[in-house]
Design a protein that fits this description.
This protein has two helices and two strands; from the N terminus they run H-E-E-H. With 79 residues, the protein is mainly alpha-helical. The chain has one domain. The protein has a two-stranded antiparallel sheet. Helix 1 runs antiparallel to helix 2.
Amino acid sequence: MNLDLDDFPISAAWKQRIESWAEGYGEWLDLERDELQSDAVKAEENFNREGSLLSIEIQKDLPGYFISYKASHLSSLYK
């Protein structure tokens, strides 16, 4: 489920960082050819690592919320 970042008490800098990270979702796919980029698995792993770290950092800033990150496994659908 995607959430509206404006619903949370986080700074504009946090919002920008999250949005910048989210824009990278799926960059490991070649959508025109409907196949993985050559470094897809590593790129997706990096995306997931960054997402996990972001969720840990945000949790520290929002102790009244439960923040979790669900890793992407999109590249496994193309194998």
